[in-house]
Amino acid sequence: MNGPGPDVLVLGNLQGNTWSLNIAAGAECVVDTNGSINAGPMSNFWGPGTLTILFEGSVSCNMSGSDMNIGNDLVINNHGSFSINGITLCYLAGSSTTIHNYNNFSVDGEFDFLVYAPGPEFINHPSGTFTKDGTDE
């Protein structure tokens, strides 16, 4: 599945606990306006494809103290809302894993990005807001 347009289009709600969203090379998963992904503890996001969150779309990761991985060269384009709550570490892995934030990206609780290998990036574009609440500021 990597023809024209998104390969997976989230119009409603996609929920999961202890799961991984694996997006293949050349594939794109789009969280549409008013669509949402809710990830629970021990959930991960893997590439090397692209995850795009459109304006008013959202991704919420409620990790309940578990770590989280974003990697394998995944590209995240956040034009909506991306929030991570209740984790200790968020591992960014892969030589070209990149998070582009154009809107709202928030983390809450004891939170640290841990970067594996040179290459992974978090880019907060001029229109983007990064908010950190909680302990370990």
Short description:
By secondary structure, the protein is mainly β.
Give structural attributes.
137 residues; mainly beta; six-stranded parallel sheet; 17 strands; 0% helix
Outline the structure in words.
With 137 residues, this protein is mainly beta. It is 0% helix and 50% strand. It contains no helices and 17 strands. It has a 6-stranded parallel sheet with strand order 1-4-7-10-13-16, with no helix packed on it. It has a 6-stranded parallel sheet with strand order 2-5-8-11-14-17, with no helix packed on it. Strands 3-6-9-12-15 form a 5-stranded parallel sheet, with no helix packed on it. The radius of gyration is 14 Å and the shape is globular. The mean pLDDT is 90.
Broad structural category: mainly beta
Strand line-up across the major sheet: 1-4-7-10-13-16
Rounded mean pLDDT score:
90
Shape: globular
Task: Give the CA-CA distance, first to last residue.
Answer: 41 Å
Percent of residues in helices comes to: under 10%
Write the layout of secondary structure elements.
Blueprint: E1 8-10, E2 13-16, E3 20-22, E4 28-31, E5 36-39, E6 44-46, E7 50-53, E8 58-62, E9 68-71, E10 75-78, E11 81-85, E12 89-92, E13 98-101, E14 104-108, E15 112-115, E16 121-124, E17 129-133
Parallel strand pairs: 1-4, 2-5, 3-6, 4-7, 5-8, 6-9, 7-10, 8-11, 9-12, 10-13, 11-14, 12-15, 13-16, 14-17
